[in-house]
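Input chain follows. Return structure tokens only.
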Amino acid sequence: MHAILNYNVSFPGLGIHDLSISRIAFQFNLFGRQVVVYWYGLLFAIAMVLCLVLAARHAKYHHLASDDIVDLFLWMVPSILIGARIYYVIFEWDQFKGNWKSALNFREGGLAFYGGVIGGIISVVVVAKVKKMKLHRPLDFLAVYVPLGQAIGRWGNFFNQEAFGTNTSLPWGMISEGTRRGLASVNPDPANPLPGIDPALPVHPTFLYEFIANMIIFVILIYVRRNIKRPWVTFHSYLFLYGLVRFFVEGIRTDSLMFTFLGYNLRVSQVLSALMVLASVAFLIAIYLRGRQRDRIMASLAGVPADIVEVSEIVAEDTDEDVEE
């Protein structure tokens, strides 16, 4: 099946019809060879550069060196791409089995966000280990920028007309050649479409849902990082908030990666989102209880002479607090 490069997108309920878009942002000739730049790749690059600029600018307020931030990004960017591709290939193994050339061809499409997150976290762990940084410091600091990057990247799904949802009668329902083709491909009998995946009807623009949700998460995490200084809180707040959003959005996606467990067909990202939410809630509760215990110890020691108990030795662990801009 050949990819469509140009689409006419309509939002009938909003009175928007035949909005012409293209997967190609621009193209130019370089040494006699035509170079094509797609919106998906361009938006990924814009997201990375913007997040890097913001992170480098804010690093000094969190006792982090801007050079360390640059090093983190230099490792994170390729790790995100490789992780996203490996994750996708694993869960679409039948498509790539015996065809390694296709599996390594990023231009054919097929990147999974959670694979990128895993790859990015691995790279941060490695860099933090090499630089002898406490792991929570870069993870808490960088977690703020992840939803911003996601929000920008989701517009790549719009230009590709992919990652959309089931049919909807809501005013912002979207329809295009891409949605019609995508829904037709998942219908066993396109002439008699299944409920919720009728190619002739508008669909949920899930890219827009995630864009809005991620921008809200970005703002929330800025507040959390500025006002809650306990280690790991910002990182786990991101896992909780995005996991919650993705769980529900994934439930209406029509292109989910699937796996079979005990005879049930499950959505990979939905299961992973549920696990993320549960794990992050458990960690946040543990962090809160540990903080309460520490506060009680501090209160009980408030009247003890300094020459008897050195308070700083008791609470030294993880107290390299960040100072927000």
